[in-house]
Write a structure and sequence with these properties.
With 191 residues, this protein is mainly beta. 5% of the residues lie in helices and 44% in strands. It contains 1 helix and 12 strands, in the order E-E-E-E-E-E-H-E-E-E-E-E-E. Strands 7-8-9-10-11-1-2-3-4-5-6-12 form a 12-stranded mixed β-sheet, with helices on one face. A hairpin with a 3-residue loop joins strand 4 and strand 5. The chain starts with a strand and ends in a 7-residue tail after the last strand.
Length: 191
């Protein structure tokens, strides 16, 4: 389970991502009180706002064949899981910064620190990724990226994520069951 830490406000967001092809479940609870849940069975996507007791239901678009960043659920799957499957494809943009890092509060076992160059140019992005050496799973990452705002003004961001994995997922995780008081809506209201 990735946990994101906001560097300025100390906010902690909780993310849960589960995948059992073709099923996917993605949950996000942010510090603003929003509680999102997306569930798909590959044919339908349910987006549930537990804090509003409301959900939408739409036909699922076909899942992209190739791995890569993008929008929607495939984009979240890439960011929080699938990109680690593609590290061997970007070895020319990766380097080991430190190996034999002892266990600490971010990583429960020995790890190695790898830096990945994710993007260059006007919107550069790099990620420092700690990987558990025995399990070959990420345990912590820090991503530094720049986004161009109004008037092409650059804004720098930092995102810290701590990972916790489970060996198996409960199949019921992928069954959409809203609260009995939840209402189906066509879209969520904006504040």
């Amino acid at each position: 389970m990735p946990r994101m830490h906001g560097p300025d406000d100390g906010a902690i967001d909780r993310i849960v991502l589960g995948r059992l092809s073709p099923n996917l479940r993605f949950e996000l609870v942010n510090s603003g009180g929003e509680d999102w849940q997306w569930t798909t069975n590959g044919q339908t996507i349910w987006c549930y706002r537990r804090d509003l007791k409301a959900y939408t239901e739409v036909k699922a678009d076909p899942w992209p064949q190739g791995l890569g960043p993008g929008d929607g659920l495939p984009g979240y799957e890439w960011k929080y899981f699938a990109k680690f499957l593609a590290i061997t494809d970007i070895t020319d943009r990766a380097r080991v910064l430190k190996d034999d890092i002892p266990p600490d509060h971010d990583c429960p076992g020995p790890s190695v620190l790898i830096e990945l160059i994710l993007a260059e140019g006007d919107a550069p992005a790099r990620e420092q990724l700690r990987v558990l050496t025995r399990q070959h799973l990420p345990c912590h990452s820090t991503t530094y990226f720049t986004r161009l705002g109004h008037g092409r003004m650059p804004y720098d961001f930092k995102e810290d994520i701590t990972w916790r994995f489970r060996d198996h997922s409960d199949p019921n995780l992928f069954v959409f069951v809203p609260d009995k008081h939840a209402k189906r809506v066509s879209k969520f209201r904006r504040y």
